[in-house]
Amino acid sequence: MAAFTKVTTRSEIPAGSGKVLEVSGKAIALFNCDGTFYAIENACKHRGGPLGEGSLSGTHVACPWHGWQYDVTSGACSMNPSIKMQSFAVKAEGDDILISMES
Questions:
Q1: In 3D, which of 79, 94, 77, 80 has the Cα closest to residue 40?
Q2: Are 63 and 53 in contact (CB under 8 A)?
Q3: For the stretch 14-49, what's the b/e string if a residue is b when 16 or more beta carbons lie within 10 angstroms of its beta carbon?
Q4: Angstrom distances, CA of residue 99 to CA of 3, 5, 54, 67
Q5: Dihedral sign from CA coordinates of 36, 40, 46, 47
Q6: pTM of structure
Q7: DSSP per-residue string spanning 55-67
Q8: N or C: which end of the chain has fewer CB within 10 A?
Q9: Are 102 and 1 in contact (CB under 8 A)?
């Protein structure tokens, strides 16, 4: 069974936004898509831009540096689905948001 770690609370990430977090020494981008949370690695595959600081539209985030877009539900690049960010399991328990770093 995957081990989950509390990383933040629901109130820290409003719906339609993201946040960069460090979990087990790794930068993670956590997104709130209308109350459902998703986590992917933070560094864009193009030039390492911070995806957690990008603009979120539905379940797609645009890198703030050069506009590469990713589906936060799967980590797949919208322009080229063969390019994929690592994604992480997320669950909510009350107000707490937890992430599993296990693949």
A1: 77
A2: no
A3: eeeebbebebeeeebbbbbbeeebbbbbbbbbeeeb
A4: 8, 5, 20, 26
A5: positive
A6: 0.94
A7: EEETTEEE-TTT-
A8: N
A9: no
Structure tokens at 88: 């992480």
**Strand, helix or coil at 74?**
coil
In the chain, domain spans: 5-100
Residue corresponding to tokens 């990430």: 13
Q: What CATH architecture is 5-100?
A: 3-layer Sandwich (2.102)
- The model's confidence at residue 1, banded by pLDDT at 50, 70 and 90, is low
**Count of other CB atoms within 10 angstroms of residue 98:** 19
Summarize pLDDT for 36-73 with one digit per residue, the tens.
999 999 999 999 999 999 999 999 999 999 999 999 99
